[in-house]
Amino acid sequence: MSASLSRPRTGVWLIGARGSVATTVVTGCAAVTAGLHPPTGMVTETPLFAGSALPALSDLVFGGHDTLDCPLPKRAEALTAGGVLPPGVASAVAAELAAADREIRHGGPTSGDTRGEAELVTDFADDIRDFTHRHRLERTVVINVASTEPASGGPGAPLPASTLYALAALRAGCPYVNFTPSEGMHHPAAARAAERTSLPHAGRDGKTGQTLLRAVLGPMFAQRALTVRAWSGTNLLGGGDGAALADPAAAAAKNAGKERVLADTLGTVPEGEVHIDDVPALGDWKTAWDHIAFDGFLGTRMILQTIWQGCDSALAAPLVLDLARLAARAHQAGLTGPLGDLGFYFKDPVGAGPASLAEQYTALTALGQRLRPPAGGERAPGERQ
Ligand SMILES: NC(=O)c1ccc[n+]([C@@H]2O[C@H](COP(=O)([O-])OP(=O)(O)OC[C@H]3O[C@@H](n4cnc5c(N)ncnc54)[C@H](O)[C@@H]3O)[C@@H](O)[C@H]2O)c1
Q1: Which of 153, 175, 269, 354 is the most buried (most CB within 10 A)?
Q2: Confidence at 5, pLDDT banded by 50, 70, 90
Q3: Whose alpha carbon is nearest atom 21 of ligand 1?
Q4: 33 within ligand 1 shell (Cβ under 6 A)
Q5: What tens digit of pLDDT does each residue of 10-58 get?
């Protein structure tokens, strides 16, 4: 963005930098910075984080990897035509989109790529380091917003691309966030490497719609001592995410996180499944329908149904901006390892935090306080430059 070079700036390196979520992140950050729109949906812009010394939105610099070549301004045009971005915003921030576009490097592996895993990790890490150094950034947060991958094939199988990127983030000394259900840092190879570093990381799979509701409603049934007999869900969505999730193996990775929240909040796994249907005509708009069968006093049978109609990228982008700022500040404050206090944002959070949204919000509030620099301006123990 256009902040003075003398101010410390933070890099945000997006894996999947030409996707819908990434394009909405870059466009939205520029639009909010320019005062064109309020920061609706950004928890880091609420009083909870006043005084937590998070990097300003105007001090974020974007780059990333993608395997597609479509320029970011063109992606923003398509999102505007689809009604995801409001008319006029993409053209108002065309300079910021072009600047981010110049910082997108070709990712991988793509078909015909002859590089082995070690070489890919080295190349990705070099790209991230080069970006950080050229822009004289204080630090760079790596955030995975690439297409959902199927679960990897177990011991001996090739490392999934998300894990190669996670290893590259560690190699480049960057805090890491996995906003997708892909394995990333969860793969044993990356988890072992992460333990050897002091880098903070968070994930996985942003909680933006159906699972957000489940994290509120699950605790309600448990606290009211109502017996949930079955909880079934259907999602209809299009866009790149809908196409990726048409692959049953990728959908299975996504659904595991949606089901975990029920097991964790109800203490039991009710009957019922989650289905994801690719409906290209819906574009980025998702309809999520949940049908909850429960028993009341004397076994009286009842039903709750919810219908969530959301624009996926508009729901995800403010969370990605929040996470970039929080992970950067956590790194600066000397926090290390899995950031369990960020469970508020994820379907399948790292660490051993609570599963109910209310308790996750309490944990996030406590984190906001822990990130406050000590009064008087001296550096807290463990604080990094
Ligand atoms: N939007 C939401 O509400 C939400 C919520 C939770 C998670 N997510 C996850 O965010 C991710 C992005 O969603 P989206 O709607 O932007 O999808 P998208 O299909 O629009 O974008 C994904 C991008 O990833 C790129 N990509 C694929 N493989 C790559 C690789 N190996 N290296 C680099 N780039 C690669 C694609 O080219 C594409 O540009 C998905 O995994 C989705 O499940 C989204």
Answers
A1: 175
A2: low
A3: 19
A4: no
A5: 999 999 999 999 999 999 999 999 999 999 999 999 999 999 999 999 9
User: What's the distance, Cα to Cα, between the start and end of the chain in Å?
Assistant: 21
Cβ neighbours for 248, distance < 8 A, ≥ 6 positions apart: none
User: Is any atom of ligand 1 closer than 6 Å to the C-beta of 343?
Assistant: no
Q: Is 294 left (phi over 0), alpha (psi -120 to 50) or beta?
A: beta
User: Does 349 contact ligand 1 (Cβ within 6 A)?
Assistant: no
In short, whether 315's Cβ falls inside 6 Å of ligand 1 is yes
Q: Where are the domains of the chain?
A: 10-206+314-370, 210-311
Question: Whole-angstrom Cα distance, residue 125 to residue 105?
Answer: 11
Please tell me whether residue 178 adopts helix, strand or coil conformation: strand
Superfamily of domain 210-311: Dihydrodipicolinate Reductase; domain 2 (3.30.360.10)
Q: Is 163 in the pocket of ligand 1 (CB under 6 A)?
A: no
In angstroms, rounded to a whole number, what is the distance separating the alpha carbons of residues 33 and 53?
Answer: 17
What the block records as the tokens of 280 is: 């290209």
More confident residue, 63 or 239: 63
Q: Is the pTM of this model over 0.90?
A: yes
Q: Which residues, other chains included, contact 57 with Cβ-Cβ below 8 Å and sequence gap of 6+? A: 1, 29, 32, 33, 39, 321, 325
Q: How far is the CA of 251 from the centre of ligand 1 (A)?
A: 13
Give the separation between CA 40 and CA 322, rounded to whole angstroms. 12
Ligand 1 pocket test, pick from 27, 85, 145 with the greatest ligand atom count within 8 Å of Cβ, gives 145
